[in-house]
Design goal:
Oligomer: heterodimer
Structural class of chain A: mainly alpha
Distance between the termini of chain A: 62 Å
Strand order of the largest sheet of chain B: 1-2
Distance between the termini of chain B: 18 Å
Low-confidence stretches of chain B: 329-336
Order of helices and strands of chain B: EEHEEHHHHHHHHH
Shape of chain A: globular
Largest sheet of chain B: 2 strands, antiparallel
Shape of chain B: flat
Strand content of chain B: under 5%
Helix content of chain A: over 70%
Mean pLDDT of chain B: 81
Radius of gyration of chain A: 28 Å
Order of helices and strands of chain A: HHHHHHHHHHHHHHH
Low-confidence stretches of chain A: none
Number of strands of chain B: 4
């Protein structure tokens, strides 16, 4: 039975987008309607107060209105589908809103301190908490943070990557408990890391509080993060590359050093930088190990060396008496958040490529070399 | 891996193809190399073991003085052997439970949105936003919660107390003035929930995105809507992963220090399950607030409290990671 071929016309693309005109209009209508209704109820009729409560009520009202409007237009299946889609969508909006709220608020409040350039170039050595913001700053805390983070990275990257190589390349019966413990350690309370270093090095071995102690505590928290992320990166190095290396007679050590690590480089750097972003903001381990000081100390090996989180902790939580204290704390938080954003952006830029994918510069160099030969 | 093959044996009589033995022997340099890698793996285990050993050592004085009374005493006076976690521990758990009650639905919705609903172009930026959320220092959350959120959430607190007061935990026994809502367990749990959301979201998203494509298409082919597909394919597939992610979030919430100690004022030594009332405490907050007044005796009590927390979170986290690794179909996926 031959079916007549359909007349050949210009093939129209089927739109499969789930965002349609009436859908968007319904959502927008529900949003605006809910806003008006909430405003009337919340501000005029019922004795409520609070910004948070307002938006909470607005959200509930919006979902209610949207559900009603969807039920009027579409059948039950379609209406449920739409309503759940909008409910999940608010999840995405929520995550975005939290990030924006925290980052923007910190930057905004911190600006009043950071706009005095002296805030970034002086320590608190000759300044007291009661003096105005033009006097004293966070230089000593910035130096401490950067040195301690540098040392912690130098300790945790070799150890973390080696442990990841063990998990991915050697394996065996020991790998399973190590992997489980590493995963459990990534969520270890950071406070415990500080107490551990405090009891081991300061109470038992008689070291005094210093930048080195902080970096050891940070190593305990950063290493499992690096190990877990690095293992994932090493695992996605194509097995064919490994086999090619072995087929050429390479030993395992040669294969790891010349094939696997270079291929996974961008991912390993991303893992490291993300762990640094986590480490830089750790406050709890710092409480026991850094030691509070107002003076600039470049030597992490001896003497107390403050860092940014401890600075904030001290001026907001311990002192926290006068507005200048809060402003200083927010100023330090400004610097901290900016450092985290820089680290994070670096990780994103470096980690954008798949393992083994070349950067634009590497590709250009490769094509030049090919052209020359 | 250097593989030494035995020379191919001449073809035997048919039916006699017994498997030959392939001997794999690592060279000397490889053995050293593997030894180093194995050493790093053992170091990880050793560090965890040492944390446990040192916490036990330091807290032995406290356990020696208090014995099992450590778990039944709720007062927190350091000099007089009157210290226990009977109030701190339930308070810590309560804050974590409040945090999870908010973070699990929010994190799940976000994870489902990113893995199932978000337009492809929006997916990567949203994942980046979540990673950023995980990287924001907890002290920034603490400042935000303490200075921005706290004054603004009091109205909602008051509303909850007035209209949902019949639920025991929302019952409010103090006068309905804003200062009586300041520094409550509820606010602390709320701020902690924001730090737990990225953990729950990113782990559940990874599990959801592994739901088999064939089954998704099968659901669509049977006429399912997108929600129907999510409900019947993605959610059942990801259930174990979600449980694991929530447990990992619980571990994180139990150990959160800075935000909790910023917000909980005044620190109390009685367990109060009325979450809206001012004041509260947790193991982490107690340690962070009291570390300056360490005396040799006091510090042992703090270490004992930390040991309790460590054992609790280690158990929860280990369970969580086992659940998660079971839920991934094959932890050893070899992508090639």
């Amino acid at each position: 039975m031959a079916v007549a071929p359909a007349p050949l016309g210009p093939e129209a693309r089927v739109r499969i987008s789930s965002i349609t005109g009436d859908g968007a209009a319904t959502a927008a209508g529900a949003a605006v309607g809910a806003l008006g209704l909430t405003w009337v109820l919340y501000e005029r009729v019922l004795p409520f107060s609070g910004v948070l409560g307002f938006w909470l009520s607005w959200y509930l009202m919006f979902m209610l209105l949207y559900a009603v409007m969807a039920a009027l237009q579409w059948d039950r299946l379609e209406a449920t589908n739409r309503v759940t889609a909008v409910a999940f969508g608010t999840g995405g909006v929520l995550a975005l809103a939290i990030v924006v709220a925290i980052v923007a608020y910190t930057l905004l409040k911190g600006w009043s301190a950071v706009r005095h350039l002296s805030f970034l170039t002086t320590s608190m050595a000759k300044s007291g908490p009661l003096l105005p913001l033009t006097d004293g700053g966070v230089l000593h805390a910035m130096v401490g943070t950067l040195e301690q983070l540098g040392l912690a990275t130098a300790f945790s990257v070799p150890l973390g990557v080696t442990a990841a190589l063990f998990l991915a390349e050697v394996g065996g019966p020991l790998a399973r408990p190590v992997r489980t413990i590493v995963e459990a350690m990534t969520a270890l309370p950071d406070l415990i890391a500080g107490l551990f270093i405090y009891s081991l090095f300061i109470l038992s071995l008689g070291f005094s509080k210093s930048g080195l102690m902080v970096s050891l505590a940070l190593t305990v928290t950063m290493m499992p993060i690096i190990t877990r992320a690095a293992e994932v990166v090493i695992r996605i190095v194509p097995g064919t590359l490994r086999e090619a290396s072995y087929a050429l007679g390479g030993s395992q050590w040669r294969t790891v050093w010349n094939v696997i690590l270079p291929t996974a480089r961008s991912g390993l750097v991303t893992a490291t930088v993300l762990a640094m972003a986590r480490g830089i903001g750790e406050t709890a381990p710092v409480l026991f190990t850094a030691g509070f000081t107002k003076v600039l100390n470049f030597n992490p090996l001896s003497g107390p060396q403050i860092n940014l989180p401890l600075y904030i902790w001290n001026y907001v939580h311990i002192e926290g008496e006068v507005p200048a204290d809060f402003a200083r704390g927010f100023g330090a938080a400004f610097v901290l958040v900016v450092l985290v954003l820089i680290l994070f952006t670096t990780a994103r830029v470096l980690g954008g490529s798949a393992p083994g994918e070349l950067t634009r510069r590497q590709r250009r160099r490769l094509s030049r070399e090919v052209a020359r030969t | 891996m250097a593989v030494a093959l035995t020379p191919a044996s001449p073809p035997g009589p048919p039916g006699d193809d017994a498997p030959r033995t392939v001997v794999s022997r690592a060279s000397a340099s490889d053995q050293v190399f593997r030894g180093i890698l194995r050493g790093a793996g053992i170091t990880v285990l050793a560090i965890t073991a040492m944390i446990l050993v040192f916490l036990v050592l330091q807290s032995s004085t406290a356990f020696g003085a208090e014995g099992l009374r450590f778990f039944t005493t709720s007062t927190l006076s350091y000099g007089t052997d009157q210290f226990g976690v009977a109030a701190l521990l339930p308070d810590t758990v309560l804050i974590a439970v409040i945090a999870l009650a908010i973070a699990v639905p929010a994190g799940l919705a976000t994870a489902i949105y990113i893995s199932e609903y978000a337009p492809l172009g929006l997916r990567r930026p949203l994942i980046a936003v979540l990673d950023l959320l995980a990287a924001i220092p907890s002290i920034a959350f603490a400042l935000w919660g303490f200075i921005y959120l706290m004054p603004r959430i009091l109205g909602t607190d008051s509303w909850l107390a007035r209209h949902l007061g019949f639920i025991p935990i929302f019952h409010f026994r103090l006068a309905d003035t804003p200062s009586n809502f300041v520094g409550s367990t509820f606010v602390a749990g709320f701020v902690v929930s924001m730090m737990v959301i990225p953990i729950i979201t990113s782990l559940s998203r990874q599990v959801f995105s592994q739901a088999p494509q064939g089954e998704r298409e099968a659901a669509y082919a049977l006429g399912s809507t997108r929600w129907g597909m999510v409900r019947t394919v993605v959610l059942p597939f990801g259930r174990a992963g979600v449980v694991g992610a929530s447990m990992l979030g619980l571990g994180r919430a139990l150990g959160e220090t800075i935000a909790v100690s910023f917000i909980l004022t005044p620190p109390t030594d009685t367990f109060n399950y009325h979450v809206l009332e001012s004041g509260g405490n947790s193991i982490t907050a107690e340690i962070a607030n009291e570390y300056t007044s360490f005396s040799t005796k006091g510090i042992s009590f703090l270490f004992a409290a930390a040991l309790t927390l460590f054992v609790l979170t280690l158990i929860i986290n280990t369970f969580a990671s086992i659940v998660i690794s079971r839920s991934r179909s094959g932890a050893a996926t070899e992508a090639d």
